[in-house]
Amino acid sequence: MTAEYVLRSLLMLFLALLSANASNWLYLAKLSSVGSISDEETCERLRGLIQRQVQICKRSVEVMDAVRRGAQLAIDECQFQFRNRRWNCSTLETMPVFGKVVTQGTREAAFVYAISAASVAFAVTRACSSGELEKCGCDRNVHGVSSEGFQWSGCSDNIAYGVAFSQSFVDVRERSKGQSSSRALMNLHNNEAGRKAILSHMRVECKCHGVSGSCEVKTCWKAMPPFRKVGNVIKEKFDGATEVEQRKVGTTKVLVPRNSQFKPHTDEDLVYLDPSPDFCDHDPRTPGVLGTAGLIVATV
Ligand SMILES: *[C@@H]1O[C@H](CO)[C@@H](O)[C@H](O)[C@H]1NC(C)=O
């Protein structure tokens, strides 16, 4: 082992620690698919996962391709929602895929965490409904005759399974930190708010049966909203996000609005700690942010 090798290894380790970020699993979107043949090897070779996510992967390798699709869904929806803005959610080939903006506790990071947590819950739930997974299927708890008199039938989306998977996979890094830092609290809050954007917009879809659609019998099932709807809801929460700070209440730490005149945020609102960088200044140290330096402003 040469000295150069040791130095190089140390440097790589340092860079890895430096870029460690709770949203690095989004890097899965860069893969064209996640094979599910050899669990151990597949999980070890996925970039961007922390050790505990690798363990979850090994336990449920069949779910990982849905997680990858979720990561892609999050990136696509982010780019759609921010298509006309200075920060437009463009991704990098490196981690974190959204660049430095998400390493700070900004409003943009709040959006990225919320949409990512939601997208995993969504994609896994979809996979359950489509029958591609052994571990889950349609929600069997929804059955019988409803209070409105229609028959529950068909495949109700098993959102509880998707949400639980998202909680264990996406939140794992924050939970392993013991929820102590204000940034961990912020991420956990926004992850949960993202999942709520699906949960509070579940809908009932129905089909009529009978002579020429006379609807003598109506069968219905519970369905998730389209992901575009989820994106719209989270974007609205981004626009109205609350700036918070950490405070100790008894022995627990909580996030409270920085401006005490503001009403407290709800479980469905987004929260952030740090002001956003000025996206107009081109900062070469902030990869992923395309500034407008060099733009000539004509003054009349
Ligand atoms: C973001 O904006 C830049 C500059 O206008 C553009 O080059 C880039 O393609 C945009 N990215 C996305 C994902 O829309």
UniProtKB/TrEMBL annotation:
Highest taxon of source: Eukaryota
Family in the record: Belongs to the Wnt family.
Function recorded in the entry: Ligand for members of the frizzled family of seven transmembrane receptors.
Major localisation: secreted
Keywords, ordered alphabetically: Developmental protein, Disulfide bond, Extracellular matrix, Glycoprotein, Lipoprotein, Secreted, Signal, Wnt signaling pathway
Cell compartments where the protein resides: Secreted, Extracellular space, Extracellular matrix
Name of the featured protein: Protein Wnt
Database matches in InterPro entries: Wnt, Wnt4, Wnt_CS
